[in-house]
Design goal:
about 190 residues; alpha/beta; about 35% helix
């Protein structure tokens, strides 16, 4: 059983990540910093997610004395193409049309930093979509405004209830934070001294 001894700072504005940490019964506060999320072109999807999570964590290095800082980055990969957050409704429509009737991978990289020591990991989930009609895609974009979500969708939204046929892997990973892996790292605090 994880006994929280140190304050936790979540460096993410994602309401889903905040919900997940709350559901884990963790006490935390949210602190944000702007970080450049560019990455080297040659990286594989899992490496991109970890690279950006670590970049975010390094921005908090000086703030990590006596606290555990958690950062994360989630990306969607479809046939080797990285689908980030859509720029507008048209871009979101393009993304969801690609994902319709196919499968894709969701990668979340997570970094924890405490007293200058960093631990990073990632998780991968395979997501299978049913066919989506143009009307369904339009309805989702208008009513759920998925502009802040990688791949232009949130599995916990309406689209997850009607379009996700199955997943292989962690559900919380698709939401943006693989909680079971995070719990294991938090429980082993030998690194956070």
């Amino acid at each position: 059983m994880y006994q929280q001894r140190l304050p936790i700072i979540l460096a993410s504005k994602s309401p889903r990540r905040q919900e997940l940490l709350s559901a884990m019964n963790l006490d935390f506060k949210v602190v944000l910093k702007d970080v450049d999320e560019s990455y080297p072109e040659e990286l594989l999807p899992a490496e991109i997610a970890v690279y950006i999570a670590e970049k975010k964590a390094k921005a908090f290095d000086e703030d990590s004395q006596g606290s555990i800082i958690i950062t994360a980055d989630t990306i969607v990969a479809y046939n080797g193409e990285i689908l980030g957050k859509p720029e507008d409704a048209h871009h979101a429509t393009e993304m969801l049309t690609k994902l319709s009737g196919t499968n894709h991978q969701v990668y979340t990289g997570v970094s924890l930093i405490c007293n200058g020591e960093m631990r990073s990991f990632y998780d991968t989930t395979e997501v299978f979509f049913n066919d989506l009609s143009p009307e369904q895609i339009s309805y989702y974009i208008k009513n759920y405004k998925p502009m802040d979500k990688a791949g232009a969708y949130g599995i916990q939204d309406w689209i997850g209830m009607v379009a996700v046929k199955k997943i292989i892997g962690s559900y919380t990973n698709v939401m943006g934070l693989p909680t079971e892996k995070l719990y294991k790292v938090l429980a082993d605090q030998s690194w956070a001294v």
